[in-house]
């Protein structure tokens, strides 16, 4: 029998003192405690003391005991593998003996330690754990049953996959039937644990659960109207998950489940209502949604719109009850500012599709603002209001205009209501359905848009801010109508709101205006003076958080109007405040990101107009890249001494240099000449982080176009790296690498020949892959065409392997320089290897017909190939061949090539 470990009085006293001190509000005391705790980790039995305080020292207060357990949990997390075996054994034993402690707090803490040990991969070397916990579920002592269930729930959450593996010889076969027995336990807490445990195994379609699926569903129905809100919440959660995984089993019960979820979406407990509301989002993804939900829309829509109202608590938190709302004097708290994620530069081809009709919500790619328009972080990020709005949004996409006859009476009632909270929810609903119901809404917009413009001057700030968002959702329509009737009044009022006294309205107006800019593009040119005056005036008024959104609005404006911004009076308005900010911000300040992004757009738009500012901007970007690379090296060599750098600094700097190269073109020459940019770029191109490589390749392509003489000497080092990055698993990196190879080949000419073996096979693989995204297909086709243009004899032999995909990839892009060089390449390859195109000649004809106005000499190349082919096969065969053409295609070809 080995001796039981006992604490020494002095050691115990020291640790208790430390635990008491660590609850002090004073940060200096807390820091000192942290240090002492780190030192104590050197003593092997320090963790024995911690578990002893947690499980045995009943005389101490619960918070002190629990804290001891939480420190132990952190030690297990960080150092468990270096615990002595006897210490680890002692901790495990003590945990299991204290799992039924009378105090819920202590039970929960013990459960957390057990799970943390289990998640260290220890669950395999602690074979008695699961059987013991399952056995304790049958204890007559409620505390033991609840404590072991608590631990099991955490284990199921953390190690669900492991529990369903052969490594532990499938304990779930025993556990799941066991959990199901407790669905009807007398204690709501136990019922809750039981459902929660099973819920973790639904998504993975665990076999042990699928065997008992009917018993599970039957038990859920039994608990449907449980008096305990947490049980109801778990039941709703289970049904939402089952809808995705086992719709077949729910289908016979769906009418009842829909009625139940309608009821629960109105549950007095918001947490239950929120869980139930998720059901509509899930149901919208199922093909049966229209059929099963159509008849119940009149019952569901009023519930969703009611769920969109701000609660009384929200209104207090958001200070929505105040009228004057001059809150812009109050300084922003750092906690209110969400982290922003920079989207690295990606090279895409401009399409000839009408502006923005692919995305009626007009939000470009950023769907993150489509969350019911309230981006306030003092509210939890996901709540019933946002979930209800999202539900209405997805249902509008499923039902389209069929939703409107049910929705219009609700809108009539809410939009014109005297209570501003109800009116606000109506305006939100109107915005939520914009994406799905646009076609049906169009006849009503001539009345609705002016009404919304009036709402922009409502007394309540929350009404003004949601109206900004809703108007932005209809910006595609607004831009396509008479400017005098719609665009001008919307723009004028939105710009007034950009200068609102309320910060939340400023934010909403600025975001909405950026969306309008994306839709309107050059339609805004006549109003540029007024727009810039407003945005620049906002610079002087905005605080930290909204400044970041203002940068975005200015950058989007530059992207939208392009070179029209390059006028002395506009530059005089815009550049001084931007450069002032640029000079004030320190190199390590993250506010540089949005400012650099904004400047990148402005530099691209202003072109030569940016020349007076380019030198300091260029130098700082190069310096940011160099600092980041150096810090990275320092961190790699001695991680304990140097922190890892934030590589976003480098990514954003690379992207701004791309903007400079694109805007200034040859003018960037002397800047690159007098810097070490090419050596830094060589390092960035090999960075393990994909976003860094993505931005490096974009910059490489832009420098190739702007000042190839500086890129040329590095080609032997650069091209093998580009070849290694032609991996379509990382789309954006692959896309930019592909584009850069094409740009380099055009400049390098026949010299490209020796590099073709490094890249050609990869490119042919990518173009033939199923499900390759459109942008990557187009870039790949253009680059293959360009390689064939400069080295037809190297590429033509494999023509047959890619020509069909090549033609279908490029038939949808509009005439431009890239398309021109690619088609010259394909024509040259066909001349070298005419046999390579025979099987797919119809696709080539179709691609040729996609040109609106090819240059004369390119048109001649097309004509020569078509006539050559016709002469080769003879009149009769040619007629049979062209009889298969659609009318339009024959007409285009005869007009273009006289054939």
Describe this structure in words.
68% of the residues lie in helices and 0% in strands. It contains 50 helices and no strands. The longest helix is centred in the C-terminal third of the chain and has 27 residues, at 611-637. The N and C termini lie far apart (101 Å). Residues 365-374 have a biased composition (Acidic residues). It comes from Pieris macdunnoughi. Keywords: Cytoplasm, Protein transport, Repeat, Transport. This is Importin N-terminal domain-containing protein.
Tell me the number of helical segments per DSSP (H or I, 4 or more residues long).
50
Query: Average pLDDT value?
Result: 86
Tell me the total number of β-strands: 0
> How many angstroms does the end-to-end distance come to?
101 Å
Question: What characteristic shape results from the CA principal axes?
Answer: globular
Largest sheet, strands/sense/barrel: none
Estimated radius of gyration: 33 Å
Unreliable spans are 350-379
GO cellular component, one term: cytoplasm
GO molecular function, one term: small GTPase binding
Region (Disordered): 346-377
Main location: cytoplasm
